[in-house]
Amino acid sequence: MLSPEGIFEVPAEYAEYGKYIERLNLDDFLKFYRDMARIRRFDNECTALQRQGQMGLWVQALGQEAAQIGSGYGVGPNDHMFPSYREHGVAITHGIDLMSIIKIMRGVNHGGWNPEETRFHLYAIVLATQVLHATGYAMGVNFDGLVGTGNPDVDQAVITYFGDGATAEGDVSEALLFAATTKAPLVFFCQNNQWAISSPVSSQTVVPLYLRGEGFGVPGIQVDGNDVLACYAVTAKHMDDARNGLGPSLIEALTYRVGAHTTSDDPTKYRPADELEYWQARDPLLRFEKFLRRQGVGDDFFEEVAKAGDELAEQIRAETFAMQNPPLENIFRHVYSDPHPMVAEQQAWLEGYEASFEEGEPS
Ligand SMILES: Cc1ncc(C[n+]2csc(CCOP(=O)(O)OP(=O)(O)O)c2C)c(N)n1
Fold it and tell me: Model-level pTM?
């Protein structure tokens, strides 16, 4: 759809998706670009902060900005999102405070946001668990009759994000089956970034991943995951279909993890350099910049975006360095909804242990 030269065209057989792009105006395009640039700047700054000891770990989304910003904007205002651990781009399209992501990676917050307020659920480190959580949630939406009423204030859909590696977990197959048999309003969004740490996608599947759902009755579509407009259109259409009662579907976004798996990984040990070069030539921001310049967008805009990125980075750094450790009792606060004697015992022990430092070395 979007060529490396920035020329945009919707093939005739995908005209129904093209309608979603026709509704967009230049302001929407600029918003997409701003957010892709913003999340990339955030990502690079967080990598630097981790290297300086401010976070235990950082998980980069470099190269996946179009898949995340495009799909994020395809999710409606009532819909719920169940991310994995790399979806910082989706998070900003729904107003999540970026500092709450840093708090998780710093280990001072167990979740960082309240799904009741944001509809963006907790990051899931245990692969594919969120896919089952999303399926259960979507089944509940169905049971509550919040699908296909035709009332846009009522109808809801659910989207879940997972990687190519996660598809090898039984959880994804179970989720596809439950979603299909209950006609759950759920979009499975697989970011196929070609690698699961050091395992290539060829070790996870021998057929394209978008076909994985067919045997379960979940139709799939493959999209250029480095094309923000295509990702937006495909997600928006499939979320509309789910909300309207047409059941689940699977989107495979073909993209590439340009950075390391996490700051604990060194991809030069297992990834061929020419593969990286191939994908860097298809960088989602560069492609979209070419598209915008064709629309007459000039240097002023790109300079403004770069300046905003510097300001964001400065703010993130200042807030991270100023971050205080939260009260110790937070660790125990959300284990159970009601008090539990074993949790109380553990809390008392930890408080005593911490207090022993004030008196000298712990015994
Ligand atoms: C159940 C489980 N098994 C193994 C791991 C260790 N692990 C963390 S990330 C990862 C690779 C995931 O790859 P993919 O699903 O493609 O997502 P990506 O990280 O590339 O976005 C593995 C094996 C885990 N977190 N959870």
Answer: 0.94
